[in-house]
């Protein structure tokens, strides 16, 4: 998979190698078998879906401005990747690993400029072993997948079954990688917060356990996983208890649980119906893939084949039956009613929950609550609907809150002000509380950063960004803290933090902190043309940022000095030469 060999300072030939348009495939591009966007179906879900069903084909991801990235799949494994922006230069990765020298890299670049050869092929000919080349290629692929994880939710995707949109783009190497590790890294880089919360809500009423055949060793991709899985193996527990027993902060623990859920490593003990947004395959494609779906999960996780998980299995079609009995119809209707109201209750204010007008009298509120309690108290559910106890409890709890608040004159007056301000629903109140908590957590992260406690600062900043991803400063500080980690000092790691700051700038084009930190990282990579653009933008946003202003002044001064330096005179003909003598004669005339 020797493709996209470009670095930030890779040279014009390498930029051309990266930016070239792949040759058109021999057959015309077909209509996509499935479409969607990353807001509804995160990239992690796409990888899991492709892996479980051992899909072959390709996925093309297009941003709102038309820039496109793509991956190729072979039986669920990613075999090729092309990103819309330069991400990882193969030669530079080999140089950082100590597998090539600058001289070898420069020589292969010169040959690359001649065209017609891939850089990986030239490096192999220069003496890089297949094993080392494969190691660098896997690192390159990981960095490219990291980039795709950070694409905005508005990015659309198109899946082509049995068709490779990257045909003719680079080579193809047989690479393998740990799917769980790749997804965990991507989830940390860009947490799909809405999907995390939705997935955990679906299993909040049931204890969790490892699926049969899954071991801790198989899941040991990070210390966070080991701590949480150890707590789960000791005794199946519900989410809050697992978080407490693991000793992890709530944000990290929830991300670990989400990753384990979507990769089908854990399961709820009770039969709770769950689903995750997956590619909706059309009938023709579904028929073509039906045989592949029975093979179990992909080799990428290293797990043995197992039946499809309840996280992704659609409900089995029921056998044809005779005329349904009235009782069965009533139960089905009641189940649908519970599911529907439970899904809407958080977006309703207290009056909407009780279905009462704003000027309702206390006596009418009490009567309505009694009426609702007779129907919605979880203890009144019939046995066939026992699996609906959790959503029914949630609905009844909201009814109780509404009745308690609206029956108290002072609390009702405060609540009416909330309605006027537009923040009266439980969802809105939870959002406001989360925003306030995130701001407080970020302030603590800033304090820890100033005193050099970077480990605690990173944990706090990560929690703040996870709680409120709309704040560019949270992501910017997180990127800066990570850039100071001794493990993140390579150019490739620095480029990853720059990508995080790119996202911060996209979130808020007026984030002074984002521009300044990005300028400092560009300076670290000796990319001063890019660094000075960010320093100037920082100074424009805040003229009192003395560090940014100083960087601009230094750059201007150095450039002026360089421009004013006397240039060496061009060497004339040596004295006494025939040309010198001829010029002398001409001048005398």
Estimated structural class: mainly alpha
Shape: globular
Please compute the radius of gyration using only Cα atoms.
30 Å
Give the spatial strand order of the biggest sheet. 1-5-2-3-4
Helical residue percent? 55-70%
| CA-CA gap between termini | 71 Å
Biggest sheet statistics: 5 strands, antiparallel
- Beta-strand content: 5-15%
Number of strands: 7
Q: Specify the number of helices.
A: 26
| Number of spatially distinct domains | 4
Unreliable runs: 1-26, 271-324
Brief summary:
The chain has 589 residues and is mainly α. The protein is built from 26 helices and seven strands.
What does this protein look like?
By secondary structure, this protein is mainly α. It is built from 26 helices and 7 strands. The strands form 2 sheets. It has a 5-stranded antiparallel β-sheet with strand order 1-5-2-3-4, covered by helices on one side. A two-stranded antiparallel ribbon has the order 6-7. The longest helix has 25 residues, at 426-450. The radius of gyration is 30 Å and the shape is globular. It starts with 11 loop residues before the first helix and ends with a helix. The model is unreliable at 1-26 and 271-324 (pLDDT under 50).
């Amino acid at each position: 998979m020797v493709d996209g060999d470009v670095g930030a300072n890779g040279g014009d030939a390498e930029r051309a190698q990266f930016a070239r348009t792949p040759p058109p495939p021999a057959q015309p591009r077909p209509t996509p078998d499935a479409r969607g966007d990353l807001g509804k179906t995160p990239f992690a879900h796409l990888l899991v879906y492709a892996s479980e069903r051992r899909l072959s084909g390709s996925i093309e991801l297009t941003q709102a401005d038309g820039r496109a990235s793509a991956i190729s799949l072979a039986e669920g494994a990613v075999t090729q990747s092309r990103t819309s922006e330069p991400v990882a230069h193969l030669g530079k990765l080999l140089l950082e690993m100590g597998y090539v020298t600058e001289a070898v890299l420069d020589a292969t670049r010169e040959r690359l400029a001649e065209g017609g050869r891939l850089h990986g092929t030239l490096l192999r000919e220069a003496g890089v072993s297949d094993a080392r080349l494969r190691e660098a290629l896997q690192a390159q692929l990981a960095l490219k997948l990291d980039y795709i994880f950070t694409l905005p939710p508005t990015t659309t995707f198109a899946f082509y079954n049995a068709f490779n949109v990257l045909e003719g783009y680079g080579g193809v190497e047989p690479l393998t990688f740990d799917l769980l590790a790749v997804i965990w890294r991507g989830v940390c880089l860009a947490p799909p917060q809405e999907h995390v919360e939705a997935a955990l809500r679906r299993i909040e009423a049931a204890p969790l356990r490892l699926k049969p055949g899954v071991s801790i060793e198989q899941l040991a991709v990070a210390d966070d996983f080991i701590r949480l899985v150890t707590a789960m193996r000791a005794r199946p527990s519900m989410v809050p208890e697992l978080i407490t027993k693991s000793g992890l902060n709530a944000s990290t623990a929830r991300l670990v649980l989400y990753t384990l859920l979507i990769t089908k490593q854990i399961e709820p003990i009770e039969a709770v119906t769950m689903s995750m947004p997956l590619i909706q395959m059309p009938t023709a494609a579904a028929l073509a893939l039906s045989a592949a779906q029975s093979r179990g999960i992909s080799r990428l996780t290293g797990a043995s084949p197992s039946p499809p998980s309840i996280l992704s299995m659609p409900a089995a079609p029921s056998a044809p039956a005779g005329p349904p009995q009235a009782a069965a119809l009533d139960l089905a209707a009641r189940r649908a009613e519970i599911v529907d109201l439970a899904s809407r209750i958080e977006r309703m204010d207290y009056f909407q929950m009780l279905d009462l007008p704003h000027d309702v009298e206390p006596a009418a509120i009490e009567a309505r609550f009694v009426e609702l309690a007779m129907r919605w108290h979880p203890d009144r559910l019939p046995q066939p609907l026992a699996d609906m106890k959790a959503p029914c409890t949630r609905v009844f709890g909201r009814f109780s809150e509404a009745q308690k608040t609206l029956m108290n004159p002072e609390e009702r007056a405060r609540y009416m002000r909330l309605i006027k301000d537009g923040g009266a629903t439980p969802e809105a109140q939870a959002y406001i509380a989360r925003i306030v908590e995130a701001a407080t957590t970020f302030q603590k992260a800033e304090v820890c950063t100033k005193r050099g406690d970077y480990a605690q600062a990173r944990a706090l900043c990560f929690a703040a960004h996870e709680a409120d991803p709309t704040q560019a400063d949270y992501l910017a500080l997180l990127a800066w803290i990570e850039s100071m980690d001794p493990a993140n000092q390579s150019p490739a790691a620095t480029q990853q933090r720059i990508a995080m700051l790119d996202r911060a700038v996209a979130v808020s084009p007026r984030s002074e902190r984002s521009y300044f930190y990005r300028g400092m990282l560009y300076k670290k990579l000796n990319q001063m043309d890019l660094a000075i653009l960010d320093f100037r933008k920082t100074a424009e946003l805040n003229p009192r940022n003395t560090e940014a202003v100083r960087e601009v002044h230094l750059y201007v001064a150095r450039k002026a000095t360089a421009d004013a330096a006397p240039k060496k005179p061009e060497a004339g003909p040596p004295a006494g030469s025939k040309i010198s003598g001829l010029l002398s004669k001409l001048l005398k005339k």
